[in-house]
Amino acid sequence: MTESTTDTWDLIIIGAGAVGENVADYATKGGLRTVIVEAELVGGECSYWACMPSKALLRPSSVLTAARRVAGASAAVAGDLDVAAVLERRTGFTSAWDDSSQVSWLDSAGIDLVRGHGRLAGERIVDVTQPDGTVRRLTATHAVAVCTGSTPTFPTIDGLAEAKPWTSREATAMTEVPESIAIVGGGVVAAELATIFRSLGAEVTMIIRSRLLGSLEDIASDAVRTSLEESGVRFVSGSPSAVTRGDDGGVRIELGDDAPAIEAREILVATGRHPATSDLGLETVGVNPTDLRVDDSMRVAGVHDDWLYAVGDITGRALLTHQGKYQARAAGLAIAARAAGTLSSAPSARPEPWSDYAATADHEHVPSVVFTEPEVATVGLTSRAAADAGYPTRIVDYDLGSVAGAAVHADGYAGTVRAVIDTERRIILGMTFVGQDVSEMLHAATIAVVAQVPLDRLWHAVPAYPTMNEVWLRILETERYA
């Protein structure tokens, strides 16, 4: 890409991950001259250290497990995973951490790129510290969007920083699998990484303070924990009190309360992520970095003349790539429409709910998948969240393994589906699927939840036979007759 010599654009975007790219794409298609500022790789966390490499690492084990569950196919399966081939395939998905193809896409889309660390320096002004240390000042005629994502949260543990713990970045970019690893945390990232390391032959210990996957339904948490334990993952309750890395390169983790110490080659911290708002200069435009608030078009509250937008993980609304890209579409369209005068820029003017300019689905309709064994696919509210919100509910569970399509899919198929039903409006507030390959059933549930399709209308959405989607009919029958 030939970098533009201008220092003025209609829109400046800080952060060239999937979110920033989508804001840029939609705004550029709306007629704005757009530049992206990026300090690392164009494509961001998802492309190189999160979504894509982690799912590439998980897939081989999933395929092997699926084959072993089908008589006739299982007899053809011999041996274990080829670890070197798994890592090589992962590297292919990251383009060996080379962003040339992503840069080429920016060029083809008419989006400019400036390399370096971007920081707000005043109204519609971004200072970029370039790789050579020089500072280049960029000015936006219309808007600035900060799309810097999130960063790992580290617990306060004596000696942890000095022990140089792994995060998801080191894990997904590893060139060799450690013989043993201790994972601190019990959320989605921790569970998926435990699945990866165990499938590749490492001894895995998970150190968790409470329930595994505690934000999900118990049917999901219990199933994943049981599966991990059966695969050989060891669970330890508690929190590390101290970590030391020995002369041999291994780590020793003290738990306190006279609990036995844990020894491992590596320690991985997966205790959550928080919005990457530091060193962005937000305070220079009157925004508290620890209290960043946006409306549904992703405009930052409290900024004079309403020119600043924040999109994706940095907002703390839904820390998922697909939700960030959804927000980005709304923001890009809104920025372009406000620049063209077809959408009001007044602070009091808010886009209508469910319009192209509003990320309304972020509130109670978020879909997500945990790519463990078994998979967990969810959308909308859990039973606990629905109760906390005051909805009158009925919970309907159904054994997915009893559906004919599941029995064909895998011998001895085990899984559960839970629907959270609003008994007054007779709509589905949330659904959770647990089982092999359930992620492929999620979008139908997402449509039902987002569109608030009445149960009486869903009754006429006939599932194909014999597929696992027949569980939809069984859920409706249970709700109607049980």
UniProtKB/TrEMBL annotation:
What organism is this sequence from? Labedella populi
Q: Does the UniProt entry include the keyword Nucleotide-binding?
A: yes
Q: Which cysteines are joined by disulfide bonds?
A: 46-51
Q: Which residues bind NAD(+)?
A: 185-192, 272
Q: Which UniProt keywords apply?
A: FAD, Flavoprotein, NAD, Nucleotide-binding
Quote the record's cofactor note: Binds 1 FAD per subunit.
Q: Which GO terms describe its molecular function?
A: dihydrolipoyl dehydrogenase (NADH) activity; flavin adenine dinucleotide binding
* Record GO biological process: 2-oxoglutarate metabolic process
What is the protein's name according to its record?
Answer: NAD(P)/FAD-dependent oxidoreductase
Q: Where along this sequence does the record place binding of FAD?
A: 55, 118, 148-150, 313
The record's listing under Pfam families reads: Pyr_redox_2 (PF07992), Pyr_redox_dim (PF02852)
PANTHER family to which the protein is assigned, alphabetical: DIHYDROLIPOYL DEHYDROGENASE, MITOCHONDRIAL, DISULFIDE OXIDOREDUCTASE
**Recorded family membership:** Belongs to the class-I pyridine nucleotide-disulfide oxidoreductase family.
Q: Which cofactor does it need?
A: FAD
